[in-house]
Amino acid sequence: MSKIGVFDSGLGGLTVLKHLIADHPNDDFIYLGDNARVPYGNKSDSTIIKYSEQAVEFLLKNGVNTIVIACNTSSAIALDKLIADFPGINFIGMIRPAAKAAVSISQSKSIGVIGTQATIKSNSYMKEIMNYGDYSVLTKATPLFVPFVESGMIKHKAVDLIIEEYLSEFKGNIDTLILACTHYPFLIEGINNFFENRVNIIDTGYYSSKELVGNKYLKDRKIEYYVTDEPNNFISIAENNLNLKIDNIKTIDLENL
Question: In order of start, what are the domains of the chain with their CATH numbers?
């Protein structure tokens, strides 16, 4: 039996969970959205590591044997520390699979990366992409996307204005764009429209899911959901935009495990 833990600062990691569920139909999943403290991207490195460690401790107490860090910020800032602190646990982050996919897809060797302030400041994607050769990498922090997604304003006209403001400098200068935040796939329609569908969009969750070796044996699957504050838009956004049926969600306190 395989039980996989998945965590994010909020509901963005649900875009990763959707791929995991489709790719690994025989595995159990526990999803943790730390929506009481979203976003992680504007926090200090020490705080991001602390929150990530608390999420991992909770998931381990619930019997997982693999943890998918469905948060680019945690992947950028905390992954190495988590691997060191929790030996023997299989961690899958967002950065390496997405960077590998981007360099394999890009024809012009010109890649854009958008994410939270912490992710972009870490230069994690830049470093990973450069491992594959000489690439032109344009990066930009786009922090306003997260609150719009968390509030459910995914197709609000203001989002299109923010997309234009953030991404204008990328237009004509890249052929591949990494969505280096798992909240951003909720906005993929607007982003594609802005680029007139001429840019390859890398959904980090899609490629990270391919890194996971799942259970080969058929069984009845169980998916559990946990949040750290009232679900509010969590359920409706998941059901209306990702077709995820959430009927067993619980609220927990990570500060007092």
Answer: 3-93+207-256 (3.40.50.1860), 95-204 (3.40.50.1860)
How far is it, in rounded angstroms, from Cα 136 to Cα 114?
Answer: 14
pLDDT at site 154: 93
Q: Which of 21, 50, 23, 79 is nearest to 58 (CA)?
A: 50
Burial code of 89-115, b = ≥16 C-beta within 10 A, e = fewer?
A: bebbbbbbbbbbbbbeebeebbbbbbb
CA dist 203 and 177 (Å) reads 9
Instruction: List residues with catalytic annotation.
Output: 71, 181
The pLDDT tens digits of the residues spanning 152-164 come to 999 899 999 999 9
H/E segment holding residue 165: helix 157-167
Beta carbons of 201 and 177 less than 8 angstroms apart: yes
Look up tokens 């559990």; give the residue. 224
Q: Residue 247 has what pLDDT? A: 85
For 184, 188, 216, 247, the CA distances from 236, given in Å and listed in that order, are 17, 18, 32, 11
Q: Tokens in use for 170?
A: 């990328």
Beta strands in 19-132 (DSSP E): 28-33, 66-69, 90-92, 110-115
- The model's pLDDT over 98-125, given as tens digits with 9 standing for 90+, comes to 999 999 999 999 999 999 999 999 999 9
